[in-house]
Amino acid sequence: MIIKLYGVRGSLPAPMLNRDFRLRLKDVLTIAVEQNLKSMADIDSFIDSLPDYLSFTTGGDTTCVTVKRDDELFILDAGTGIRALGDELLHGPAGQGKAVIHLLFTHTHWDHIQGIPFFKPLYIPGNEIHFYSPLPDLEERLAYQTDDRFFPMPFHQTASTKVFHQIKGELQISHGLRIDTHPLKHPGGSFAYRFRSDGKTFIFATDVEFNGDDLLNRNDHLDFFHDADLLILDAQYTLDESFMKIDWGHTSYSMAVNCAVHWR
User: Fold this and answer.
1) CA distance 181 to 66
2) How high is the mean pLDDT in each 10-residue block of the chain (264 residues)?
3) Tell me: domain 1-12+59-166, CATH 3.60.15.10, correct?
4) What sign does the dihedral 137-142-148-150 (CA atoms) show?
5) What pLDDT score does 29 carry?
6) Whole-Å CA distances, 194 to 67, 72, 81, 233
7) Which sign, positive or negative, has the C-alpha torsion 55, 6, 112, 87?
8) What is the separation of C-alpha 198 from the centre of its chain, rounded to a whole number of angstroms?
9) What is the pLDDT of residue 23?
10) Three-state DSSP class for 17?
11) CATH superfamily of 170-264
């Protein structure tokens, strides 16, 4: 399995501000003046040598993560990160109306569905998009956000074929891949997903609150979280912030690490 992060923020997308861009540019140029850059090849090599914090941007888009297995693609949540993903997919079968896409939802808070109207494969006839959730009314929720009072193109008028699946227990979409869900503590409810394939396990558990009261109950989640090769877990707050935001539905990074180490 190959995991790729297209959106990692919560709440709202946040493009880089001009002042932040200027500060980063200043840092890059400060390093560049010490180099003897005489060609485009030199410039490319210089850029490749920069530390990640100067050569990449992160945190701009809301939640969207992909799991690629052979020729199959599974998308977790549809925050604004799904827009760039959709643009990439247009270069393959999705651009020809020949794609089968699997889209799984942890929950339907705004930052996890707000990219749906801008996912271009949704508008191409012939594409088959499967929507999965333990929620019984996922279709109704997604349609509501593009009601014509809020968006010019209603969800059901998009040209792709849309198939909805309510997850009840283990989900087997293809041979050799097992997907399980686990309920999480979050306002309105949320679910974690566990992917198991070829002896490897990936768990996606965003938007969950583990606080001090949960320390004694970590084993309640052990069966699901145990022995993950890769775990993506909510770690939004500092410890001090978590005390001020009890029942807001998120976890401090210290608690997240504590739980992850216990479950491994």
Assistant:
1) 16
2) 96 92 94 91 94 89 96 96 98 98 98 98 98 98 95 96 94 89 96 96 96 79 94 94 91 93 90
3) yes
4) positive
5) 93
6) 11, 16, 21, 12
7) positive
8) 22
9) 94
10) coil
11) Ribonuclease Z/Hydroxyacylglutathione hydrolase-like (3.60.15.10)
Q: Are the CB atoms for 114 and 82 separated by under 8 Å?
A: no
Q: What are phi and psi of 177, to 5 degrees?
A: -120, 130
Using the structure block, give the residue that is written with the tokens 């005489």: 38
Q: In the chain, which residues fall in CATH 3.60.15.10?
A: 1-12+59-166, 170-264
C-beta separation of 73 from 100 below 8 A: no
Instruction: Quote the tokens at residue 263.
Output: 């479950």
User: Which tokens go with 113?
Assistant: 């569905």
How long, in residues, is the chain?
A: 264
Report the pLDDT value the prediction gives residue 96, as an integer from 0 to 100.
98
Phi-psi region for residue 173, left (φ > 0), alpha (ψ -120 to 50) or beta? alpha
Long-range contacts of range 221-225, CB-CB < 8 Å, 24 or more positions apart? 221/182, 221/259, 221/263, 222/262, 222/263, 224/180, 224/182, 224/192, 224/194, 225/182, 225/192, 225/259, 225/260, 225/263
